[in-house]
Specification:
Distance between the termini: 40 Å
Order of helices and strands: HHHEEEEHEHEHEHH
Subunit structure: Homopolymer.
Pfam family, one: GTP_cyclohydroI
Binding site for Zn(2+): 76, 79, 147
Helix content: 40-55%
CATH architecture of the largest domain: 2-Layer Sandwich
Strand content: 25-35%
Bound molecules: guanosine-5'-triphosphate, zinc ion
CATH class of the largest domain: Alpha Beta
EC number: 3.5.4.16
Family: Belongs to the GTP cyclohydrolase I family.
Radius of gyration: 19 Å
Length: 187
């Protein structure tokens, strides 16, 4: 559960730390605004994707389901700056499919918390394997990290691509090739 009072106190300390005047008109509501914002952008804290992935439907219709270009925003846990981009998810059903929106909801659960990209990629793949129990899962995330663009090494436009493969995707390279074809040219 997010402690908004604590966040407000911390924001006051940070503003003091950078030499700001806490009584300045423009900053009056800033601690409260940031606490409200953190409640929203860290709403995945303590959540599991289980509640989204437990409602399944029987289906023998498809060898592979791909949901691509799922836009997400997350926060780099090292610098507390945004990283954002697209997630692509594929799974091979084992007689059961899940509502399409639930794949995007799963991405949200793991994006809305302090994160690193590789861990988010693995968590999405693992939660699908655990709760949907498909024959295989593949997740690819491509993102731009603001900690690499507006500060530090300052390389705007550079993108980080991460992949997690589980089940049949780990055993069969052809499935991986099909996934890349379906997702499009991301080379
Ligand atoms: N693997 C990985 N690294 C990340 C991610 N987000 C940020 N980083 C990196 O985390 C590293 C933290 O490095 P440190 O040397 O501890 O911190 P720093 O001095 O601020 O590093 P610079 O960004 O190089 O200035 C940096 O190299 C970031 O690019 C991520 O999602 N995955
Ligand atoms: Zn960072």
């Amino acid at each position: 559960m997010i402690d908004k009072k604590k966040i407000e106190e911390a924001v006051c300390l940070m503003l003091e730390g950078i030499g700001e005047d806490l009584d300045r008109e423009g900053l009056k509501d800033t601690p409260k605004r940031i606490a409200n914002m953190y409640e929203e952008i860290f709403s995945g804290m303590g959540q599991s994707a289980q509640k989204h992935l437990s409602k399944t439907f029987p289906s023998e219709g498809s060898d592979m389901v791909v949901e691509k270009d799922i836009v997400f925003y997350s926060m780099c846990e090292h610098h507390f700056m945004p990283f954002y981009g697209k997630a692509h998810i594929a799974y091979i059903p084992d007689g059961q499919v899940v509502g399409l929106s639930k794949l995007a909801r799963t991405v949200e659960v793991y994006a809305k918390r302090p994160q690193i990209q590789e861990q988010m990629t693995a968590q999405i793949a693992d939660s699908l394997m655990e709760h949907l129990k498909p024959k295989g899962v593949m997740v690819m995330i491509e993102a731009e990290h603001m900690c690499m663009t507006m500060r530090g090494v300052k390389k705007p436009g550079s993108r980080t691509v991460s992949v997690a493969k589980r089940g049949e995707f780990s055993e069969n390279d052809k499935l991986e090739t099909t996934f890349f074809h379906m997702v499009g040219n991301h080379g």
